[in-house]
Structures are given as structure tokens and as C-alpha cells.
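Cross-posted from the bioinformatics board.
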Amino acid sequence: VDKQKVDVLISSSVWDPKPWVEGLSKSELVGEIHVWPTQADLTNVEALFVWKPLESGVISLMPNLKWISSLGAGVDHLMTDPQIPANIPITRIVDPFLARDMTNYVIMGLIMHQRSMLSHLNNQKSKIWKRLTYNPLKVGVMGLGALGSHLAKKLVNLGFEVFGYSRTLKSIDGVSCFDESGQKEFLSHAEVLVNLLPVTPQTINILNEQVFRSLPEGAYLINVARGNHLVEKDLINALNNRWLSGALLDVFWEEPLPQSNPLWEHSKVTITPHVASVTTPNSAIALLLDNLKRLQENRELLHTVDLSKGY
Ligand code: NAP
Ligand code: GLV
């Protein structure tokens, strides 16, 4: 056995593991590639690549595990999993395609809302010629990390007035930035609120009645981060009493969204099935291999998660 090669386990129950196996198998750095579920002996596995959920007990089968990478941007699925050890590095995907695709999705939702596109589609069904007006919009981006900052910059270029919110105060050309001390003011500008925060104990349920009440009347919500950010009943109330004009939701507390969930049938809600931005395997594999080389050379890994912050 070539000592240099690293055995890996891929666990991704929602995504097809095939492109990941194919891409990784082309590398000289990679030894055996296991895909969960498997009966194989995992004693020599040193790297775990995981998209949620990871079956309970899997970690204990890998006594030589040295590194875990999420296959997506989010690591909430790992942070809340009690089997994840505290003493090995966890990394995540930070990737230009992921940022591009997220930005494009949000721009789609934003402009569909601004231009009343759903009303035009409905009117077309009844051959109704009705000229609906539109206004410039102020957009609030919550979370100015890899994805939020990319979005904020593109929105400035498209001519939107952009406001940003993050834990530590940022400085981005053309964007009015706020931290927690300025949360109220940030929200008061956000005619469209885009959520790109990670889920942490501080941000869970952050999209709640109090926040909705702080937005301008008739504001529109785009939640592309995680379902756990949103208090669904508060959203439904805010839509029903017209405080909010609508919402585009890509992520949910429970996925797939259960048939019984009232969001499915709400006339002001547009739903997509967690597809706002899906990791491009070939691009992400280059990052995984870069990190794998770093692991072998005992160098610091890229895009590690700060366990104390939880993202
Ligand atoms: P990131 O680079 O870690 O950025 C997170 C941002 O949120 C940072 O600006 C951070 O502030 C801010 N933040 C964290 N905690 C906060 C708090 N308590 N109050 C205010 N701001 C806070 O993450 P990312 O790569 O941009 O990804 C963001 C999230 O998008 C992921 O966690 C994932 O859940 C979601 N996502 C969804 C999809 C989809 O298809 N729907 C795809 C990809 C990602 P600092 O800058 O001060 O640290
Ligand atoms: C997708 O939701 C991701 O976190 O990459």
C-alpha cells in the first residue's frame, strides 16, 4: 500500500455520490474510496466527505479519521451531530461556482418579485393585459460571508441600493454595512430581506415576528440559508396580515417539505426544493484535493470551521 495515499469515505444520502467518486479517483493522492453505506473495513479512512445526514455511529468506524469536510457551504449538519469529534479539523466548501449560482438564484427571485412576474404569468393564463408598475428596491443581505458578500457586490452593480448585516462589521464598496448594534436600522431599510447566515445557536429562528415587524411594510423575504432560521408560523402571520408581501423559500425545517405543511399552498409563498446553489463536484473536488495535500504535508487546511463560532 502506498503510504502517501489517503483513504476516504463519502457519505451523501441526498446527492448522487457518483461524480465525487469519479472525480476523486483520478487523483494520485486518493487511496481507497468508500461510499456509505458499506460493509467494508473503514479502519484506514483518514478523510470523511459528507453531505447530510451522516448516519449515527459512522464516525466510530474510523479510528484514524483526521479530517472531515462538508460537501456544501453549510456545516450546521455537522455542528449539531454529537458523534462529530471536537479534535479534528472540519472544513467546508467555499467555491466560485457556489457563489455565482447563489447570487444568480437570489437575483432571479428579487427581480421576479420587483417585476410582479408571478402576476404576469397568472394574467397571461386569462389573456389579461395589465401593466403593473415597478419601483427601485432596497435590498438587505443578512450574512456577508463567501455568499452574501458576493451577492451584495453584484446587486450594487445591478443598481440596487444594498444594505448588509454581519457579526463583525464589514466594509464593502457601495454597501451600507451594519453589525448587531445596527440591526434595527439595517432591517428598517430592507424592502427585500435576503438571508445568507449560517445556522448557529445565535441565528436559529432569527427570521421571526420581531424581525418582520422591523422591516418596511410590504417587505419581501428570500430565505436561501436554512429552514431553521425561519419561524414558519410567524411568516404565515406576517403574510396574512399583509406586513410582508411575499416570500421565496428554498430551505425548510424538514426537507423534503411535508405535504401537510401550509407553506405549500400559501398564495404568497414560492417554494423551491433546496436548489438555490448546489455544489459543482468538479470544482469542489479541486478544493478537497488541495486540502488533502495540505493534510498529508501537515499544513493548515483551507476554509476550516471555527468550532467556537459554529460556522
Ligand atoms: P460564511 O462565509 O460563513 O458567512 C457567514 C456570514 O454570516 C458571515 O458574514 C458572518 O459574519 C455572518 N454571521 C454569522 N453569525 C452571525 C450572527 N450571529 N449575526 C450576524 N451575522 C452573522 O457562509 P457562506 O459560505 O456565505 O454560506 C452561508 C450559508 O448559506 C450556509 O451556512 C448555508 O446554510 C447556506 N447555503 C444554502 C445553499 C442553498 O442551496 N440553499 C447553498 C449554499 C449555502 P462574519 O463575517 O462577521 O463572520
Ligand atoms: C447547501 O445548502 C450548502 O450549504 O452548500
